[in-house]
Amino acid sequence: MIRTMIWDCDGTLVDSRAMIDLFYDGYHRLYPNRPRKDRAEFVPCHGNPDEVNFRMLNILPQHQASFFEFCLNGSSVTDHFRAFPEINPVLFQLKARGIRLGINTSRTQKTIREAQLQLKEAYDLFDFVVTSDQVSHPKPAPDSLLLCQQKAGCRKEEMLYIGDQPVDQQCAEQAGIQFVLAQWGISTPQPFHECLKLDHPAAIFELIKNH
Fold first, then answer.
1. What are phi and psi of 16, to 5 degrees?
2. CA-wise closest residue to 198 among 160, 167, 153, 171
3. Which of 1, 145, 163, 179 has the fewest CB atoms inside 10 Å of its own CB, making it the most exposed?
4. Measured between alpha carbons, how far is 99 from 102 in angstroms, rounded to an integer?
5. What are the pLDDT digits (tens) for 113-157?
6. For the segment 184-206, what is each residue's pLDDT rounded down to a tens digit?
């Protein structure tokens, strides 16, 4: 029986695909003299921990603290990102059924605060949130999901982790927790291993009925 559902944030709860274009534009504003990169090179940035993106894009240490502000170019994250339309009603129904809810995200404790504005009142439904800077080794390492399990106080077989990126699947597999692919948020051409898949958030109810 499923007692706890852990959700990735970007691409699963929140439609943050605009991040790809923000990174693309911000990178080229920051480094106008570097050879231009193709937009496809920025697709994996969606959902990666910050340090992975900095390394992949070769963002110099002196620019890392201000890189996101540079990408936003005076706008706010909430100007670009919104909760997926079905997400909030689904979260309320799950909570009403007694399912514990958690977030396991590559965001930091600072940037996860923006999710409160993006998810609005549904954010308060989550029993716990684990961010990348709360563990020594963020996704795809299993540390964050194992911390989620500790906070949930349940067995691994009583948990699901819903995400949209290969790093989410790798994290779940290494932690020994069932992974469910949120196909509504996929933005990466990278392949996934065989797994459970959902076309839309409300499909989660049919899935848990069979567990």
1. -115, 30
2. 160
3. 1
4. 10
5. 888 888 999 999 999 999 999 999 999 999 999 999 999 999 999
6. 987 666 678 889 999 999 999 99
